[in-house]
Write a structure and sequence with these properties.
alpha+beta, eight-stranded parallel β-sheet
Length: 720
């Protein structure tokens, strides 16, 4: 009989140069330093030690330790005997400790998240936590038992085949064990076989996404009493260049978010409680898909996706920078991901990599992807492979052809360019490659809820601009139903130790919800209005923008109802028909109570007229400049920084002026200039941007305000 003992309690944790301390699992040593952006973020090797009594074992039975997540590399020693080395911080691995056991035992786990050249991830925009941040179990099994050690296998795998009319399902069950025969039971029918069984179900109850995520359970039992079971769903998935994602023979547009697994104050050492809270928030906005970035997540969260009906993009942390010595690690992490997650009906694709070509292409990188793609198809013939490409990758790159389907990470309107370039990029790509299945895997803008603006613009980190950004992108997505999946980056703010921007060090603030999950930003309600059809509501944006200096202020309302009526100080101002976004103009004379009503729903905020803009609402730094000029500084008959790069480069005189600026910016190591040099595809995109937008992106440290004025003055001397 299998017995599972929780090993999460009573550990001693030791870090070099510090005294031992008692901890319980889950635990990470970066719960604070990996989230504050300071210089104290520590990566290295720490040790977890646990003393335990010898478990009761029948003759020839085995004792196996199960580690659900040890970041990033782990070495396991029992009573001084080194038993295992595992590389990869996001997957389950198990260690047979039977032969090393004594009556009293000392277990030591050395866990290392330090930099190296072989274990992914090593370069990415998120914190690489260290620790035993998921659970540990001791599993004892009889001599005859299901496989435990091979790639963290569950020991049982289910593959379903659904007929074209959806009326008949063939359920194939494969088991891994060392016994002679196994009893496999499904729907009260038991088949005794060596390892494989096949069941035919008439009129099966389908797993139908968020509408009806029905799950079956299959159980396998050996004569020794060892037993395993798994849940599974019966569904048919497909991908079409023009129809997008197909679920059970109907177009089913996947619209949702990406998710990182960490939490403020906890790091990645989270429990089922936090997983469930994340799921509730994701479902509240009405999302039907989640990209689990950029690594294997906890099995508890895949279970929740199965139960709630979210379609999942699952991937390994092969990200940002290819390492020649890391090939085997990408393959082993992919084997473990697919082996451990195969039975989850929520998973619809396997992600090979994310923005891997940012630092350049190589034959080794390309070959690595071919091997990964082949491995995925060998391990799983039922799901396609995909990749997330950065916008600067050449649209005709041979890398794109390797995976079965593709997707793009586009940040026009935030990091670079204009919002409209998201639309044109997708349209141009779709027109050039009409047979390719294309998705929109990342888009987002950082927002610190402290910062507000009556005239939001890219780079200001305001909650106001995040709304403008996502309103545009939501419309972009709605007009392109052929996008097989779209994923907001990100559902939640998350730790990024290398960041110090937008008023919060150590965080990426693109989330629709804050890092602690306590505050839903206004943009959260935009998606709830567009996607949640079951919970009527109305939400007024700008509740944190109370002090307003403008004489007439814009009040924006998000709702999944229509019409919406706005009341000011109890008096009806206006009623708007429409969809999702409702905008009103409100004169300000003093302090006002503003209420929006739609159906039985209402929301209220208070604003007050002030004489000057509240500086607490503005993010101040040495970077992009908000206002350089008056309108009098621009003669429309002459060139200016408002013209696009493409226009300016076509005229020899203005091209010379801009060329001098670019040379200086490159010498100053401006990020835009550095990225543009030598990247023809990026240069083409930049041609459609105004020079003013490019300079804003580069920041004052590259192009000071006075230099911008001089540049504009020089351009204004050249007649069109």
């Amino acid at each position: 009989m299998r017995k599972i003992t929780d090993f999460t309690g009573s550990w001693l944790f030791s870090k070099p140069g510090e005294p031992q301390k008692s901890v319980n699992l889950p635990h990470t040593w970066n719960a604070s330093d990996g989230q504050d952006g300071g210089n104290d973020y520590w990566r290295g090797t720490a040790t977890y030690t646990k003393v335990f009594h010898r478990p009761e074992l029948e003759p020839d039975s085995r004792a196996v330790l199960e580690f659900l997540g040890a970041a990033m590399t782990a070495d396991v020693t029992v009573n001084g005997v080194h038993l295992a080395h595992h590389e990869g911080g996001y997957s389950t691995f198990r260690v047979d400790i039977t032969d090393a056991l004594r009556d009293e035992n000392t277990l030591c786990v050395a866990v290392d998240n330090s930099e190296n050249d072989r274990v992914y991830p090593q370069k990415a925009d998120f914190t690489f936590y260290g620790g035993l941040y998921r659970g540990v179990n001791l599993i004892t099994v009889p001599a005859e038992h299901f496989e435990l050690l091979r790639d963290g296998t569950p020991g049982i795998f289910v593959t379903t085949e659904l007929s074209d009319d959806l009326k008949t399902a063939v359920v194939k069950v494969e088991t891994q064990h060392n016994g002679d025969e196994v009893d496999i039971t499904l729907n009260c029918v038991t088949i005794t076989v060596k390892s494989h069984a096949e069941f035919t179900l008439e009129n099966p109850h389908l797993w139908n996404g968020v509408d009806d995520p029905y799950l079956y359970t299959v159980t396998a039992r050996l004569a020794s009493g060892d037993e395993v079971s798994t849940r599974f769903g019966i569904r048919k998935i497909g991908f079409d260049p023009n129809l997008g994602f197909i679920l059970n023979k109907r177009p089913y547009p996947l619209r949702g978010v990406s998710r990182h697994q960490d939490r403020e104050g906890l790091g990645n050492a989270i429990t089922v409680r936090e997983h469930r809270e994340d799921m509730e928030l994701i479902r509240e906005i009405g999302a039907n898909t989640v990209r689990l970035a950029h690594y294997q997540h906890a099995q508890e969260f895949y279970d929740l996706c199965d139960e709630y009906g979210l379609c999942v993009w699952a991937e390994i942390p092969y990200i940002t920078q290819h390492m020649d010595a890391g090939r085997e690690n990408t393959l082993s992490q992919m084997r473990e991901l697919i082996t451990q997650c195969y039975n989850h009906p929520s998973i619809v694709c396997w992600g090979l990599s994310n923005e891997i070509a940012v630092h350049g292409m190589s034959e080794d990188l390309t070959e690595n992807h071919r091997l990964l793609n082949d491995l995925c198809h060998k391990l799983d013939s039922t799901r396609p492979t995909t990749m997330a490409h950065a916008f600067m990758l050449d649209k005709d790159s041979p890398l794109i052809d390797i995976a079965d389907i593709g997707s793009w990470n586009l940040y026009f309107g935030w990091y670079l360019g204009e919002l409209s370039q998201n639309d044109s990029f997708l349209d141009e790509y779709h027109a050039a490659h009409p047979d390719r299945v294309i998705g929109f895997s990342e888009y987002g803008a950082d927002a610190n809820p402290r910062f507000q603006s009556p005239k939001p613009e890219s780079g200001d980190y305001t909650e106001s601009y995040q709304c403008v950004y996502h309103e545009h992108l939501l419309k972009c997505i709605e007009e392109r139903p052929w996008l097989w999946a779209t994923h907001v980056w990100n559902m939640f703010d998350f730790a990024a130790d290398g960041r110090d921007e937008g008023g919060k060090a150590g965080q990426n603030q693109k989330g629709l919800v804050t890092f602690d999950r306590k505050l839903k930003k206004d943009a959260f309600y935009l998606y709830k209005a567009a996607w949640n059809k079951h919970e009527p509501f109305v939400h007024i944006c700008g509740s944190r923008y109370a002090d307003r200096a403008e004489a007439v202020t814009e009040v924006k309302v998000y709702s999944n109802l229509t019409p919406v009526t706005l009341f000011v100080d109890g008096k009806e101002l206006d009623t708007k028909d429409g969809k999702t976004v409702f905008t009103f103009k409100v004169p300000l004379t003093g302090e006002h109570s503003i209420e929006a009503k739609a159906g039985e729903c209402a929301d209220r905020i208070t604003v007050r007229k002030v004489s000057e803009f509240n500086p607490d609402y503005s993010f101040s730094r040495k970077g992009p400049v908000a206002n350089w000029f008056d309108e009098a500084d621009f003669d429309s008959s002459c060139y200016s920084i408002r013209d696009t790069m493409g226009t300016l480069m076509q005229n020899p005189s203005t091209a010379a002026i801009v060329g001098a600026l670019m040379a200086k910016a490159t010498a100053s190591r401006g990020e835009v200039a550095k990225s543009a040099s030598g990247n023809a595809n990026l240069q083409k995109m930049m041609a459609g941007m105004s020079l003013q937008a490019l300079i804003r992106q580069a920041g004052e440290n590259v192009v000071p305000p006075e230099a911008v004025r001089q540049l504009n003055a020089a351009l204004q001397k050249v007649k069109k």
